[in-house]
Amino acid sequence: MAKIDVKGTSVTVVSGGVDDYISLTDIARYKDSERTDYIIQNWLRNRNTIEFLGIWEQLNNPDFKPIEFDGIRNQAGLNSFVLTPKRWIESTGAIGITSRAGRYGGTYAHKDIAFEFASWVSVEFKLYLIKEFQRLKETEYQQLGWDIRRNLARINYRIHTDAIKARLIPPKLTPQQINLIYASEADLLNMALFGKTAKQ
Questions:
Q1: Sequence-distant (≥ 6) Cβ neighbours of residue 136 within 8 angstroms
Q2: Is residue 16 helix, strand or coil?
Q3: What pLDDT is recorded for position 72?
Q4: pLDDT band (50, 70, 90) for residue 49
Q5: Are 99 and 83 in contact (CB under 8 A)?
């Protein structure tokens, strides 16, 4: 779980394995911090929103229920039509929107859907949201790259030291001289992977 700041509004991003989910509740706070549920429900009442959600689910969710979706789509736009995230999820088997209770509760949506909602709330807010989301992903990828290189060095350390022992250390050296050879070879490995020595 991460937080990004978008035009003074803190927006929660949750990683769900392959895909990221963004808090619609936090996005709605930008418009009206007191009535976030009503803002989300008003967006869900829109016929274009229902069409978008239905197409997204058909593309990404093999368990999506098209017959139930058609029933909701036929009612969309009527004055009496009300749709909550919970009803959408339970009726259609949707995975693009989730509702959570508790401390980090609220309504979350797949990033594609969250960007669509943000556009409905404010086009300017959507553009800043995309920019901050991309910045978050770049930071995560840089950190992931560092972790991969560090783990690679740790995994290969044993192989590396065994190779030094078998091939580079002459038979008659003192323990201090052996330690110096190990240290210089380890620094060579660090320079190759990280661009710096262990001391740096």
A1: 2, 4, 13
A2: strand
A3: 94
A4: very high
A5: no
| Average per-residue pLDDT for the chain | 86
Measured between alpha carbons, how far is 91 from 67 in angstroms, rounded to an integer? Answer: 10
Nearest CA to 59 out of 112, 123, 14 is that of: 112
> Could you say which DSSP state residue 19 is in?
E
Q: Which two tokens stand for residue 43?
A: 């967006």
Burial of 67 (0-12, 13-18, 19+ CB in 10 A): exposed
Residue 130 has pLDDT above 90, yes or no: yes
Tokens at 79, concatenated: 């004055």
- Among 63, 114, 113, residue whose Cα is nearest residue 92: 63
**The residue type at 73:** R
Pairing of strands 9-16, 106-110: unpaired
Per-residue CA distances from 125 to 97, 151, 198 (Å): 20, 39, 44
